[in-house]
Fold:
Amino acid sequence: MLCFLHLVEQSTAQPEAVTLNGTETGFVDKPQVRPADPRFSSGPCRKHPGWDLSRFDVELLGRSHRASAPKARLQLAIERSAELLGLPSDWKLGIVPGSDTGAFEMAMWSLLGPRPVDALVWESFSSDWATDLGMLALPALNVLEADYGMLPRLTAIDPSHDVVFVFNGTTSGVCVPGLDWISEDREGLVLCDATSAAYAMPMDFKRLDVVTWSWQKVLGGEAAHGMLALSPRAVERLQNLPAPRALPKLFRLARQQKLIEGIFQGETINTPSMLALEDLHSALDWAHDLGGVEALWQRSRDNMAALDEWVQGSEWVGWLAQEAACRSPTSMCLKLESSIFTSLSRDEQQRWVKTMVGWLAEESAAYDIANYRSAPPGFRIWGGATVEAEDIRKLTPWLDWACERAARSITNSESENV
Structure:
C-alpha cells in the first residue's frame, strides 16, 4: 500500500501532486474507523480482552503476604504460571522483585563466574546485559554482536561456556528462530531473558537453564514483578558453586550452599503487590479459558500476519528484522524506507516519527508506538496475545494517514525553502 500524501493545512487551492518513491500519489481522507483499543505499547502492555477490575478478589489486600492465605495465593500463581508455560516439573519457579530486569540480574550475579561467558547482543537490553557482565570479574567474556535488525552468528557460542541472550529483542523486533543452536549436551549454563517471548513463542526447555520474564508483557499484567525459572542444572550450580562475589539481599537465591526454597513456594524476597497478583490471576483465567499457551501463540501469530500483510504492500515502511524467520510476533518493529524520510538526518527522521505518533495519539488511533530510543527511527507495535488482530488491521490505515500528513508537511517545507 502506498503512503498517500494529504494536505495538512486547510486550503481552498488544490495541493500540488507529490511523488513518493517515484510514484505520484493521490490523497487519503482521515480514516473513520479506529481500533477498539488503541493501546499498542510494548510494556506495560494491553490488558486481556474482558479485563474488569471490579471482578477482582480484593479480600487479601491489606493482609501480610507472609500470612497463610496470601502466601497460598502467591504459590498458586507460581503453579498456574508454570503449568500454562509448560515448564518441566523438575524446574523451580519464583516471583521476584524488579520485573524481568530484576529477575535476570539476580540470575547473572548469582550464577555466573565459574566459566567464561558468551553474550549475544543485538538490541538495547542484550547490550545492557553485556555491560553488566563486564562488571562481574568473569574468567572471560565473549560478546557476539550484531546491528539492529540482525542476529549475531549463533553457532559461534562455545558449549563449554555459559551463555547469556534474549529470546526476543523487544527493542529490535528480532527473535531467535528456535533453539537448535544450543547443545543439549552443553557444559555451561544458558541464561535466557524471555520477557517478551514467554507465552508468545514455543520454547525448548531442554536447551535452557534459566528463563526470566515479567507479568507486564504477553499476559498484560501489572509491572514491577518478575518471574525466575531455574533448571536442575542451575540449582546445582547455585548450591555447589556459590557466587564469587558479595550479593545484596534482593539477589540471594541460596544460603549456606542451599537453595532458598521459600522463594519458589510463594515466600517472596520483598513485599509484593497483592492487587497486581490478582491482576495476574485474571490473566491466567483468561488464558485458560482461551485454550492455554497454544492459543496465546496463535493470537500473536495472527497479529503478526495482520501487520505483515500491510507491510508487504507498503512503500514507506519495512520490517526492521531482515530475515522473516527472525521477526518477532510481539514487539513488531518497523523502519522508515521512503526516500522522503530517509533523505533526512536521523534526528530529523526521529522528530517526524515523534510527530506522527503524537497525531495518532491525539486521534485515539494508537498510543505508545514509537521506536525504542536507541533503535532506528520507526515504529514498535505490540502484537502479544492480549491484542486483537482486527485492531491491527484498523490501525494500518491510520499509519498511512500519518505518513501522508508528514510527507505533505516535509514537501511544503522544502518548497518554501527553495
Remarks:
- The CA atoms of residues 114 and 365 lie 51 Å apart.
- The longest helix spans residues 389-417.
- Residues 19-48+293-417 form a domain with the Aspartate Aminotransferase, domain 1 fold (CATH 3.90.1150.10).
- The mean pLDDT is 93.
